[in-house]
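S.,

As promised, the uridine-5'-diphosphate run. Input:
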Amino acid sequence: MTPPEPALSVVVPMFNEESVLPLFAPRLRAVLDALGEPYEVLVVDDGSTDGTPAGLAGLRARWPQLRVLRLRRNSGHQAALVAGVLRARGRWVVSLDADLQDPPETVAEMLRRARADGLDIVYGVRADRSRDTRFKRWTAAGYYRLMRRLVGKQVPAQAGDFRLLSRAAVEALRELPERSPVLRLVVPWLGFPSGEVTYQREERAAGRTKYPLSRMAGLAAESVTSFSAAPLRVATWLGLVGVAVCGVLVVVAVAAWLAGSTVTGWPSLYVAILFLGAVQLLCLGLLGEYVARIYTAVQGRPAYFVASDTAGPGAADADGPTADGPAELADSLR
Ligand code: UDP
Ligand code: MG
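Predicted complex:
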Protein backbone atom coordinates (compact mmCIF):
# COMPACT_ATOMS: atom_id res chain seq x y z
CA MET A 1 0.00 0.00 0.00
CA THR A 2 0.94 3.66 -0.47
CA PRO A 3 1.84 6.04 2.42
CA PRO A 4 -0.09 5.84 5.70
CA GLU A 5 -3.69 6.47 4.97
CA PRO A 6 -5.11 9.73 6.34
CA ALA A 7 -8.45 9.57 8.13
CA LEU A 8 -9.89 12.28 5.92
CA SER A 9 -9.26 13.64 2.42
CA VAL A 10 -10.81 16.94 1.40
CA VAL A 11 -11.03 17.29 -2.37
CA VAL A 12 -11.27 20.85 -3.69
CA PRO A 13 -11.50 21.61 -7.41
CA MET A 14 -10.11 25.05 -8.23
CA PHE A 15 -10.15 27.03 -11.39
CA ASN A 16 -8.74 30.56 -11.27
CA GLU A 17 -9.49 31.04 -7.59
CA GLU A 18 -6.57 33.29 -6.62
CA SER A 19 -8.86 35.79 -4.93
CA VAL A 20 -10.61 33.20 -2.80
CA LEU A 21 -7.57 31.14 -1.84
CA PRO A 22 -6.30 33.42 0.99
CA LEU A 23 -9.78 33.30 2.58
CA PHE A 24 -10.44 29.64 1.98
CA ALA A 25 -7.21 28.05 3.18
CA PRO A 26 -7.11 29.38 6.78
CA ARG A 27 -10.80 28.66 7.32
CA LEU A 28 -10.54 25.08 6.13
CA ARG A 29 -7.30 24.52 7.99
CA ALA A 30 -8.77 25.68 11.30
CA VAL A 31 -11.58 23.13 10.96
CA LEU A 32 -9.32 20.25 9.94
CA ASP A 33 -6.61 20.90 12.52
CA ALA A 34 -9.30 20.90 15.21
CA LEU A 35 -10.35 17.37 14.22
CA GLY A 36 -7.10 16.05 15.68
CA GLU A 37 -6.79 13.32 13.05
CA PRO A 38 -4.44 12.91 10.11
CA TYR A 39 -5.90 14.45 6.96
CA GLU A 40 -4.96 15.59 3.48
CA VAL A 41 -6.35 18.44 1.44
CA LEU A 42 -6.27 17.51 -2.21
CA VAL A 43 -6.64 20.60 -4.35
CA VAL A 44 -7.29 19.83 -7.99
CA ASP A 45 -5.97 22.77 -9.95
CA ASP A 46 -8.14 22.58 -13.03
CA GLY A 47 -5.70 24.28 -15.39
CA SER A 48 -5.83 27.69 -13.70
CA THR A 49 -4.27 30.53 -15.65
CA ASP A 50 -4.09 33.11 -12.84
CA GLY A 51 -2.12 33.18 -9.60
CA THR A 52 -3.72 30.02 -8.19
CA PRO A 53 -0.74 27.66 -8.81
CA ALA A 54 1.68 30.15 -7.24
CA GLY A 55 -0.66 30.67 -4.30
CA LEU A 56 -0.93 26.92 -3.75
CA ALA A 57 2.84 26.47 -3.94
CA GLY A 58 3.24 29.19 -1.31
CA LEU A 59 0.67 27.54 0.96
CA ARG A 60 2.27 24.15 0.62
CA ALA A 61 5.47 25.41 2.21
CA ARG A 62 3.55 26.09 5.43
CA TRP A 63 0.84 23.44 5.23
CA PRO A 64 2.29 19.95 4.81
CA GLN A 65 -1.12 18.32 4.52
CA LEU A 66 -1.85 20.23 1.32
CA ARG A 67 -1.51 18.15 -1.80
CA VAL A 68 -1.94 19.65 -5.26
CA LEU A 69 -3.05 17.74 -8.32
CA ARG A 70 -2.71 19.86 -11.42
CA LEU A 71 -4.65 19.03 -14.55
CA ARG A 72 -2.90 19.86 -17.78
CA ARG A 73 -5.77 21.98 -19.05
CA ASN A 74 -9.14 23.18 -17.86
CA SER A 75 -11.41 20.16 -17.90
CA GLY A 76 -14.44 21.42 -16.00
CA HIS A 77 -15.74 21.09 -12.45
CA GLN A 78 -17.07 17.52 -12.79
CA ALA A 79 -13.90 16.14 -14.34
CA ALA A 80 -11.74 17.85 -11.72
CA LEU A 81 -13.91 16.40 -8.96
CA VAL A 82 -13.67 12.89 -10.36
CA ALA A 83 -9.89 13.22 -10.72
CA GLY A 84 -9.58 14.27 -7.08
CA VAL A 85 -12.02 11.82 -5.54
CA LEU A 86 -10.51 8.83 -7.31
CA ARG A 87 -6.99 9.81 -6.19
CA ALA A 88 -7.79 10.70 -2.61
CA ARG A 89 -6.18 8.40 -0.04
CA GLY A 90 -8.34 9.07 2.97
CA ARG A 91 -10.58 6.69 4.83
CA TRP A 92 -13.28 9.31 4.25
CA VAL A 93 -13.40 11.64 1.28
CA VAL A 94 -15.23 14.97 1.28
CA SER A 95 -15.59 17.13 -1.81
CA LEU A 96 -16.18 20.84 -1.47
CA ASP A 97 -16.03 24.03 -3.53
CA ALA A 98 -13.23 26.51 -3.06
CA ASP A 99 -15.44 29.58 -2.96
CA LEU A 100 -16.68 29.02 0.62
CA GLN A 101 -20.26 28.55 -0.53
CA ASP A 102 -20.05 25.18 1.21
CA PRO A 103 -18.99 26.05 4.77
CA PRO A 104 -15.93 23.99 5.81
CA GLU A 105 -17.35 23.69 9.34
CA THR A 106 -19.99 21.33 7.97
CA VAL A 107 -17.26 18.80 7.11
CA ALA A 108 -16.79 17.99 10.81
CA GLU A 109 -20.53 17.45 11.17
CA MET A 110 -20.65 15.15 8.14
CA LEU A 111 -17.86 13.03 9.55
CA ARG A 112 -19.62 12.79 12.91
CA ARG A 113 -22.87 11.75 11.25
CA ALA A 114 -21.21 9.09 9.12
CA ARG A 115 -19.42 7.54 12.08
CA ALA A 116 -22.31 7.74 14.50
CA ASP A 117 -24.89 6.29 12.11
CA GLY A 118 -22.63 3.93 10.17
CA LEU A 119 -23.24 5.71 6.86
CA ASP A 120 -21.17 5.48 3.70
CA ILE A 121 -22.46 8.66 2.12
CA VAL A 122 -23.49 11.94 3.71
CA TYR A 123 -24.94 14.61 1.41
CA GLY A 124 -24.71 18.28 2.11
CA VAL A 125 -28.21 19.55 1.45
CA ARG A 126 -28.90 23.26 1.05
CA ALA A 127 -31.30 24.43 3.71
CA ASP A 128 -32.62 27.22 1.58
CA ARG A 129 -31.63 28.88 -1.62
CA SER A 130 -32.91 32.31 -0.81
CA ARG A 131 -29.55 33.76 -1.77
CA ASP A 132 -29.69 32.32 -5.25
CA THR A 133 -31.46 34.16 -8.01
CA ARG A 134 -35.02 33.15 -8.80
CA PHE A 135 -33.83 31.80 -12.17
CA LYS A 136 -31.21 29.58 -10.53
CA ARG A 137 -33.75 28.22 -8.02
CA TRP A 138 -36.26 27.56 -10.71
CA THR A 139 -33.87 25.72 -13.01
CA ALA A 140 -32.40 23.76 -10.10
CA ALA A 141 -35.85 22.60 -8.97
CA GLY A 142 -36.60 21.39 -12.49
CA TYR A 143 -33.25 19.65 -12.72
CA TYR A 144 -33.68 17.71 -9.47
CA ARG A 145 -37.25 16.72 -10.27
CA LEU A 146 -36.14 15.30 -13.60
CA MET A 147 -33.16 13.49 -12.06
CA ARG A 148 -35.30 11.87 -9.39
CA ARG A 149 -37.54 10.54 -12.13
CA LEU A 150 -34.65 9.19 -14.17
CA VAL A 151 -32.37 7.79 -11.49
CA GLY A 152 -34.76 7.15 -8.64
CA LYS A 153 -35.94 8.59 -5.35
CA GLN A 154 -32.55 8.05 -3.76
CA VAL A 155 -31.24 11.21 -5.44
CA PRO A 156 -31.55 13.84 -2.72
CA ALA A 157 -33.10 17.12 -3.83
CA GLN A 158 -30.92 20.17 -3.42
CA ALA A 159 -27.70 18.23 -2.91
CA GLY A 160 -24.88 19.43 -5.11
CA ASP A 161 -21.34 18.17 -5.02
CA PHE A 162 -20.71 18.82 -1.33
CA ARG A 163 -20.67 15.33 0.15
CA LEU A 164 -18.75 12.79 2.14
CA LEU A 165 -17.91 9.32 0.84
CA SER A 166 -16.48 6.34 2.64
CA ARG A 167 -13.51 4.42 1.26
CA ALA A 168 -15.91 1.65 0.19
CA ALA A 169 -17.99 4.10 -1.85
CA VAL A 170 -14.89 5.57 -3.49
CA GLU A 171 -13.69 2.09 -4.43
CA ALA A 172 -17.10 1.31 -5.93
CA LEU A 173 -16.83 4.47 -8.03
CA ARG A 174 -13.37 3.51 -9.07
CA GLU A 175 -14.56 0.17 -10.37
CA LEU A 176 -17.10 1.75 -12.70
CA PRO A 177 -15.93 1.53 -16.29
CA GLU A 178 -17.28 5.01 -16.99
CA ARG A 179 -14.76 7.73 -17.82
CA SER A 180 -16.71 10.75 -16.69
CA PRO A 181 -19.55 9.85 -14.34
CA VAL A 182 -21.92 12.62 -13.24
CA LEU A 183 -21.11 12.14 -9.56
CA ARG A 184 -24.25 13.64 -8.11
CA LEU A 185 -26.29 10.98 -9.92
CA VAL A 186 -23.94 8.01 -9.92
CA VAL A 187 -23.19 8.28 -6.19
CA PRO A 188 -26.84 7.86 -5.08
CA TRP A 189 -27.23 5.12 -7.68
CA LEU A 190 -24.48 3.09 -5.95
CA GLY A 191 -27.00 2.33 -3.23
CA PHE A 192 -24.90 2.75 -0.10
CA PRO A 193 -26.51 3.68 3.23
CA SER A 194 -26.69 7.45 3.18
CA GLY A 195 -27.78 10.44 5.21
CA GLU A 196 -28.02 14.18 4.91
CA VAL A 197 -26.68 17.20 6.70
CA THR A 198 -28.33 20.51 5.97
CA TYR A 199 -26.34 23.69 5.68
CA GLN A 200 -26.80 27.27 4.74
CA ARG A 201 -25.36 27.95 1.33
CA GLU A 202 -23.33 31.11 1.58
CA GLU A 203 -22.46 33.81 -0.88
CA ARG A 204 -19.34 33.26 -2.99
CA ALA A 205 -16.55 34.73 -0.84
CA ALA A 206 -14.64 36.35 -3.69
CA GLY A 207 -14.15 36.11 -7.43
CA ARG A 208 -16.81 35.19 -9.98
CA THR A 209 -18.79 32.06 -10.70
CA LYS A 210 -17.18 29.68 -13.19
CA TYR A 211 -20.54 28.15 -14.01
CA PRO A 212 -22.22 30.15 -16.73
CA LEU A 213 -25.60 29.13 -18.13
CA SER A 214 -24.00 27.20 -20.99
CA ARG A 215 -22.21 24.93 -18.53
CA MET A 216 -25.38 24.40 -16.50
CA ALA A 217 -27.18 23.37 -19.67
CA GLY A 218 -24.29 21.07 -20.53
CA LEU A 219 -24.46 19.38 -17.13
CA ALA A 220 -28.21 18.89 -17.46
CA ALA A 221 -27.84 17.35 -20.92
CA GLU A 222 -25.06 15.07 -19.74
CA SER A 223 -27.11 14.06 -16.71
CA VAL A 224 -30.10 13.07 -18.81
CA THR A 225 -28.18 11.21 -21.49
CA SER A 226 -25.99 9.40 -18.98
CA PHE A 227 -28.99 7.84 -17.29
CA SER A 228 -31.60 7.54 -19.96
CA ALA A 229 -32.04 6.64 -23.59
CA ALA A 230 -35.43 8.35 -23.60
CA PRO A 231 -34.40 11.19 -25.92
CA LEU A 232 -33.66 8.59 -28.60
CA ARG A 233 -37.29 7.54 -28.42
CA VAL A 234 -38.62 10.96 -29.34
CA ALA A 235 -38.47 10.00 -33.03
CA THR A 236 -40.52 6.87 -32.39
CA TRP A 237 -43.23 8.85 -30.66
CA LEU A 238 -43.26 11.58 -33.26
CA GLY A 239 -43.46 8.89 -35.94
CA LEU A 240 -46.44 7.26 -34.27
CA VAL A 241 -48.20 10.60 -33.88
CA GLY A 242 -47.33 11.33 -37.51
CA VAL A 243 -48.91 8.06 -38.67
CA ALA A 244 -52.10 8.79 -36.71
CA VAL A 245 -52.36 12.34 -38.06
CA CYS A 246 -51.59 11.04 -41.55
CA GLY A 247 -54.46 8.56 -41.29
CA VAL A 248 -56.94 11.30 -40.43
CA LEU A 249 -55.66 13.63 -43.15
CA VAL A 250 -55.78 10.89 -45.79
CA VAL A 251 -59.48 10.43 -45.01
CA VAL A 252 -60.00 14.20 -45.28
CA ALA A 253 -58.11 14.34 -48.58
CA VAL A 254 -60.04 11.44 -50.08
CA ALA A 255 -63.33 12.98 -48.95
CA ALA A 256 -62.35 16.29 -50.52
CA TRP A 257 -61.37 14.53 -53.72
CA LEU A 258 -64.67 12.65 -53.85
CA ALA A 259 -66.51 15.90 -53.30
CA GLY A 260 -64.59 17.25 -56.27
CA SER A 261 -63.33 20.28 -54.34
CA THR A 262 -59.59 19.73 -54.97
CA VAL A 263 -57.00 20.82 -57.49
CA THR A 264 -55.87 17.91 -59.70
CA GLY A 265 -52.86 16.11 -58.27
CA TRP A 266 -53.11 17.62 -54.79
CA PRO A 267 -54.49 14.57 -52.89
CA SER A 268 -51.84 12.16 -54.16
CA LEU A 269 -48.96 14.56 -53.46
CA TYR A 270 -50.33 15.50 -50.07
CA VAL A 271 -50.84 11.90 -48.97
CA ALA A 272 -47.42 10.83 -50.27
CA ILE A 273 -45.62 13.57 -48.33
CA LEU A 274 -47.47 12.82 -45.11
CA PHE A 275 -46.87 9.12 -45.44
CA LEU A 276 -43.17 9.39 -46.22
CA GLY A 277 -42.58 11.80 -43.32
CA ALA A 278 -44.23 9.46 -40.86
CA VAL A 279 -42.35 6.40 -42.17
CA GLN A 280 -39.01 8.19 -41.96
CA LEU A 281 -39.57 9.21 -38.36
CA LEU A 282 -40.60 5.69 -37.45
CA CYS A 283 -37.46 4.25 -39.02
CA LEU A 284 -35.31 6.81 -37.22
CA GLY A 285 -36.96 5.76 -34.00
CA LEU A 286 -36.23 2.14 -34.76
CA LEU A 287 -32.55 2.97 -35.30
CA GLY A 288 -32.65 4.89 -32.03
CA GLU A 289 -33.82 1.78 -30.21
CA TYR A 290 -30.77 -0.13 -31.34
CA VAL A 291 -28.41 2.76 -30.66
CA ALA A 292 -29.87 2.87 -27.15
CA ARG A 293 -29.05 -0.78 -26.62
CA ILE A 294 -25.51 -0.31 -27.87
CA TYR A 295 -25.21 2.70 -25.62
CA THR A 296 -26.13 0.87 -22.43
CA ALA A 297 -23.92 -2.06 -23.38
CA VAL A 298 -20.95 0.26 -23.96
CA GLN A 299 -21.57 2.03 -20.65
CA GLY A 300 -21.03 -1.36 -19.06
CA ARG A 301 -22.46 -0.36 -15.70
CA PRO A 302 -23.04 -3.31 -13.42
CA ALA A 303 -26.69 -4.22 -12.99
CA TYR A 304 -26.30 -4.69 -9.23
CA PHE A 305 -23.87 -4.36 -6.36
CA VAL A 306 -23.45 -6.95 -3.63
CA ALA A 307 -23.53 -5.24 -0.23
CA SER A 308 -22.45 -8.23 1.79
CA ASP A 309 -22.36 -11.99 1.66
CA THR A 310 -22.41 -14.36 4.61
CA ALA A 311 -19.88 -16.49 2.75
CA GLY A 312 -17.30 -13.73 3.31
CA PRO A 313 -16.15 -10.61 1.51
CA GLY A 314 -14.01 -12.51 -1.00
CA ALA A 315 -17.01 -14.47 -2.23
CA ALA A 316 -19.04 -11.33 -2.95
CA ASP A 317 -17.34 -10.62 -6.24
CA ALA A 318 -16.55 -14.18 -7.18
CA ASP A 319 -17.94 -13.92 -10.66
CA GLY A 320 -18.05 -10.16 -10.90
CA PRO A 321 -21.05 -7.98 -11.54
CA THR A 322 -22.67 -8.44 -14.91
CA ALA A 323 -24.84 -6.15 -16.94
CA ASP A 324 -25.25 -7.97 -20.20
CA GLY A 325 -28.22 -10.23 -19.59
CA PRO A 326 -31.20 -9.28 -21.73
CA ALA A 327 -33.35 -8.68 -18.66
CA GLU A 328 -30.84 -6.28 -17.15
CA LEU A 329 -30.43 -4.52 -20.46
CA ALA A 330 -34.11 -4.03 -20.84
CA ASP A 331 -34.25 -2.83 -17.26
CA SER A 332 -31.52 -0.27 -17.62
CA LEU A 333 -33.10 1.06 -20.78
CA ARG A 334 -36.27 1.98 -19.01
N1 UDP B 1 -14.27 24.79 -11.01
C1 UDP B 1 -13.32 23.98 -11.62
N2 UDP B 1 -13.24 23.93 -12.97
C2 UDP B 1 -14.07 24.67 -13.78
C3 UDP B 1 -15.06 25.48 -13.16
C4 UDP B 1 -15.13 25.51 -11.77
O1 UDP B 1 -12.55 23.29 -10.93
O2 UDP B 1 -13.93 24.60 -15.00
C5 UDP B 1 -14.35 24.84 -9.54
C6 UDP B 1 -14.35 26.23 -8.94
O3 UDP B 1 -13.04 26.69 -8.73
C7 UDP B 1 -15.10 26.02 -7.64
C8 UDP B 1 -16.08 24.92 -7.98
O4 UDP B 1 -15.59 24.29 -9.16
O5 UDP B 1 -14.26 25.56 -6.61
C9 UDP B 1 -17.49 25.42 -8.20
O6 UDP B 1 -17.49 26.46 -9.16
P1 UDP B 1 -18.33 27.80 -8.95
O7 UDP B 1 -18.31 28.22 -7.54
O8 UDP B 1 -17.81 28.80 -9.94
O9 UDP B 1 -19.78 27.34 -9.38
P2 UDP B 1 -21.18 27.83 -8.72
O10 UDP B 1 -21.06 27.67 -7.25
O11 UDP B 1 -21.33 29.26 -9.11
O12 UDP B 1 -22.20 26.93 -9.32
MG1 MG C 1 -19.70 28.42 -6.13
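The chain has twelve helices and seven strands. The beta strands are 8-14, 39-45, 66-70, 92-95, 121-126, 159-166, 194-199.

- D.
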